[in-house]
Design a protein that fits this description.
Largest sheet: 2 strands, antiparallel
Radius of gyration: 33 Å
Mean pLDDT: 89
Strand content: 5-15%
Order of helices and strands: EEHH
Number of domains: 2
Helix content: over 70%
Number of strands: 2
């Protein structure tokens, strides 16, 4: 995809950016930054580079927290899946043992019947 110039508004200031991302995606992301900026910066004051840095750090923190949350969920899911697989394997072993026992009983019954006949 070719780079296109997109006008974004963050913190009351306009920024012209070039990106291969779609304009709608850039607008959506700029809105996220603008929302975070409104939460962290005093209203009515000009946006300073320090305020933008604070927003970048806050958003990086959010991303890191989500990454850690995702890792915890993945580890929990892996553990739950391993437990489930173990239970299925145990059930299958039990079913195999039961089938072998039934087969032995049938063989013994046939041998008993043949021995009588």
């Amino acid at each position: 995809m070719a780079s296109a110039a997109v006008e974004l508004r963050v913190g009351g200031q306009s920024y012209r950016v070039l990106s291969s991302a779609s304009p709608s995606e850039l607008q959506r992301l700029a809105a996220v930054v603008d929302e975070k900026l409104s939460q962290l910066a005093p209203p009515g004051r000009p946006v300073t580079p320090q305020a933008m840095l604070l927003v970048a750090i806050a958003l990086a923190h959010d991303v890191e927290q989500e990454r850690l949350r995702s890792e915890r969920i993945r580890a929990h899911s892996r553990g739950a899946l391993n437990e489930l697989v173990s239970e299925v394997e145990e059930t299958l072993r039990g079913a195999g043992d039961l089938l072998e026992a039934r087969a032995s009983q049938k063989t013994a019954a046939r041998t008993d019947v043949a021995g009588r006949g």
